[in-house]
Design goal:
CATH superfamily: NAD(P)-binding Rossmann-like Domain
Radius of gyration: 14 Å
Number of domains: 1
CATH class: Alpha Beta
Distance between the termini: 14 Å
Number of strands: 5
CATH topology: Rossmann fold
Helix content: 25-40%
Length: 105
């Protein structure tokens, strides 16, 4: 499913993306892997790790900005989208995360 695929990861500069991206590049050899996140500093750090790999691309954006997403998805060729969801609640921060796959037709 991941081999030779185009993958978009929203929020991909966090702990999930920093684990998933190198593992996927090494094990599955995707055609393209796009990291879409709002944190410029984390993107800068991550871009340096993968500077030699032309398969990895970065886009600044916020999934809450529907207009920005529509513009991006009109031109997107990704067939697989990974979305990292983090729910934080209560006085202390709790991360009850879930990740899902969605195949685009």
């Amino acid at each position: 499913m991941l081999t030779n695929s185009s993958i978009l990861i929203t929020g991909g500069t966090g702990s999930f993306g920093n684990t998933f991206v190198p593992m996927t590049l090494a094990k599955y050899n995707p055609k393209r892997l796009v990291i879409y996140s709002r944190d410029k500093m984390k993107q800068w750090d991550m871009a340096h790790k993968f500077a030699e790999d032309a398969r990895v691309r970065f886009f600044i954006g916020d999934v809450r900005d529907v207009a920005d997403l529509k513009i991006y998805f009109i031109d997107a060729s990704e067939k697989l989208i990974l979305r990292k969801l983090a729910n934080r609640c209560g006085v202390s921060v709790q991360d009850s995360s879930c990740t899902y796959f969605r195949e685009m037709g």
